[in-house]
Structure formats: C-alpha cells, structure tokens
Amino acid sequence: MNHLVTVSWxxxxxxxxxxxxxxxxxxxSALPVTPRARxxxxxxxxxxxxxxxxxxxxxxxxxxxxxxxxxxxxxxxALGVDSDRTIVVYEQEGVFSAPRAWxxxxxxxxxxxYVLDGGLSAWVENGLPTESxxxxxxxxxxxxxxxxxxxxxxxxLQKLISEEAQIVDARSAGRFAGSAPEPRPGISxxxxxxxxxxxxxDLIEKGRYKSAEELRKVFSAKGVDLEQPVTTTCGSxxxxxVVGLGLEIAGAESFSLxxxxxxxxxxxxxxxxxxx
Length: 276
Fold this sequence. Notes:
The chain has about 280 residues and is α/β, with parallel strands linked by helices.
C-alpha cells in the first residue's frame, strides 16, 4: 500500500480530502517564527493545524506521548476532524513530524490517512494555491480506538531487547554511539543493546522519502528483515515514525513504535545503555 500521495493527486481531490498541517519544531531549535504562525501565514487551502504538542499526553513529563483515546478523540472532534474521511497530513519543509501525525492517527484506527510527498514546499513549487489565516471547522464525532499492537512501552521494550528482536533507532550516529550529546539536558546518549542505527535522514533525499526500492536497500544494508516485526525508536517518538513510515513504504510486514523512546529509556534505573 502506498502511504504517500502526490501534490497533483491532492490538488485533484482537495474538496473531498481533509488536510492537516502537522509541522513540529525539532527539539532545541530556535525558530524565529513558530510552526503555527507559519501555518497561519501560508497553508494548503482548507488545512487544519494539527498541533502534535497540544494533542499529546500532558499527564506525563515525557515529550509527545500518545494521549488516552478518549482525550485524543475529544480534541480531534473539536477540531472538526472526521475519522471516516480521507486525511492527508503534511509539514511545511522536509520530513520530520508529518509521519508522527500519520502514526498517531493510524494508531487510533484511522485507516485512510496519508502523507503528502514533499509537503507544502512541493505544493508551492508546483504553483498550487495557498491561503492564510486559521481554518475553523464545525465539531464532528471522531472515533478513536487504540491499536495496542502499534505502540510499545518500556516493559515491552525490555522484553524485545531480551528476545533480541529488531529495534531500529532513528537518532543520529553520534547520539547512538554516545559520542554526541542528546538535545534534552540530563539525558545520556548511547543506545539499547542490540539496536540497529538507521538515522531517519538516511531515508530522505531532497525533502522527500527515497523510492521503495532505495529504502529496501537502506534497510537491507543494515540487516533489517522486512518480513519480521520491527520496533522503531528515536529521541522522543517523532522521527521513529519517519522510520516507521519508511518501513511501510519499503513493504515491511509490521512495525510498532516505542513511544517513550530514548527520553524515557535513558532515565530508567534498570535500562542498559551501551556506547560504541
């Protein structure tokens, strides 16, 4: 199944598609203009701002954690997001956070959700129209049912490590090896025992995913068996979804995401941290 749609497809189906701008600023970045402000200045016509921070669980100090299904459904209902519609998510530049929004929606059982290949940049480059100002929609009924197989917690992650299951870490090579610092203070860099490092940037070229064939080569070169389950992780669960979507595009049988990721793992007293 192709989880990406082109700008030409979206332009042809814009009236019957719900579009979400899911841009999130990377940790530690000091953007002069916030993603929401940039959205309000220019976005695809009709697009709603999908605020990953606001839609995450604020009952925990961990970043970007999934909300309980009821809370997620309530906020999406208020935004006017219909879980039965075809949904396309995008970000303003590059590939970073839109796959996280894709994964969040899929994990809450939205099946007709896709990522716009090239995002807003590709839309603008193709001379397609944009609009400004926030978009407000009438509240609807959003139905959220958690797919428990799609998300892993720390205890499940520990079990996967003990079983030598496939765990792919999307962080940079330096952070994975322990030679570069984490962007969040007070957290040691390094990696989980047996984890495979595939920086999410290895899957991207010129702001877009590589082809399915090229992605398969990347995973194969790192020893990832696409016919076996894979769990993805990163710093806070965002770029783990970039790798997860890359796995899906490449034809992987199944993947799950460790939601707490390194922000949780590295702070656990019984977590083993390895450094190369």
